[in-house]
Amino acid sequence: MSPRIVRAFFMVVSALLGFATLLQLPSPSTFHNDPSQQVDWSRFAYTQYATDRSYLCNSLMIFESLHRLGSKADRVLVYPSRFLMSETDRSPEARLLRYARDQYAVKLKPTEVILKGGGGAPWSKSYTKLLAFNHTEYDRILNLDSDATLLQTMDELFLLPPAPVAMPLAYWLDPKDRVFTSGLMLIQPSPAEFSRVMDEINDTPSDVYDMEIMNKFYGDSALVVPHRPYLLLTGEFRSQNHQAYLGDTGESWDAEKILETTKYLHFSDWPLPKPWVPATQHVIEQTQPACEFDPATGQQDCHVRELWLGIYEDFMIRRQGICGTALQDEDESS
User: Fold this and answer.
1) CATH no. of 44-276
2) How many CB atoms lie within 10 A of CB 75?
3) Quick one: which of 46, 114, 144, 273 is 20 to 30 A from 122 by CA?
4) Residues 6 or more apart from 217 whose CB is under 8 A from it?
5) How far apart are CA 187 and CA 252, in angstroms?
6) Closest CA to 167 of 176, 152, 179
7) Is the bond preceding 229 in cis, omega lying within 30 degrees of 0?
8) Quick check: 311 and 265 in contact, CB under 8 A?
9) Secretion signal: which residues (predicted)?
10) What predicted TM-score, i.e. pTM, was given to this entire model?
């Protein structure tokens, strides 16, 4: 199966499942005692935090998915104030921001990026996502890391029982350590919590990740979001042992079935760089999933490899289509 065929399968499944999710979105009574309660979706928001042009494009892709899949919650993009100085600003960043606002109904919020230490490492800017605690105009904020593909909406998470923070456990780490991942965070904004988190950032050494701060504060109290179906690492397709992901279900690994039910696919295939960063053919060949011998056919079965390659190809095609169109549209209208 060629990567092109895999990509077609990937996109069709994503669209169909996204539509099915909307049709079967849990009702408020699933999470609330009052079955007559109406959901005011304006009280909830998906947030993105873009600190450079590459991640701004990634955020645009997340918002495109939310728009296409019909998410009902607000969409908020926090960005460095220097990205959009005025409506006449013609920088690529300014054009991408206006496209997000005009095409995907994204609310733009300029801010100052929180940096620690030298600010050179990519994660050093990730503290900025913790500004979500200060968005007190919303009852709940769902922050998603943008180095990912959103396959289905997660609107139903906004209706979970009240908790300051809800996150999935990092299933790829030792379960005995009970470590949460900050790649997906459902946050109840609070001035008190915001102040507490900001104090911790200011007092924290520069080599401490935002995920460590979240685990320090909420590791014992966070509501657990099940990683199935809400979070899957692309590296799982390369793994030879899937017990950590599958759990004690007795279920066998089925790559296509897992992908069909996954809502959020996070790119993590070290040493392969993120999909928008060029990689050498050697690194790709060394990193890609291995083919397996199929005794039934007497041939090598490479369908998981093709699926994995198709995921990366799909990301790059969409990236060019979405961000390229955003820049081109403004050029043509000017």
Assistant:
1) 3.90.550.10
2) 21
3) 46
4) 165, 196, 197, 200
5) 34
6) 179
7) yes
8) yes
9) 1-31
10) 0.86
Three-class SS state of 47:
strand
| 135-147 residue pLDDT tens | 999 999 999 999 9
| Closest among 121, 233, 223, 228 to 173, alpha carbons compared | 233
Closest to 213 in 3D by CA, of 265, 158, 165: 165
Average pLDDT of the segment spanning 114-124: 60
Joined together, the tokens standing for residue 164 give 């300051």
Contacts of 66 (CB under 8 A, 6+ apart): 46, 75, 104, 150, 153
For residue 211, which amino acid is it?
Answer: M
CA dihedral 155, 26, 261, 182 (to 10 degrees): 40
List CB contacts of 27: < 8 A, sequence separation 6 or more.
35
| Distance, CA of 79 to CA of 65 (rounded, Å) | 19
Is residue 120 pLDDT above 80, yes or no? no
Q: What confidence tens digit (pLDDT) does each residue in 182-192 have?
A: 999 999 999 99
Q: Where in the chain are the domains?
A: 44-276
CA angle 194, 99, 310 (to 5 degrees): 90
- Using an 8 Å Cβ cutoff, are 181 and 126 in contact? no
pLDDT value for 118: 58
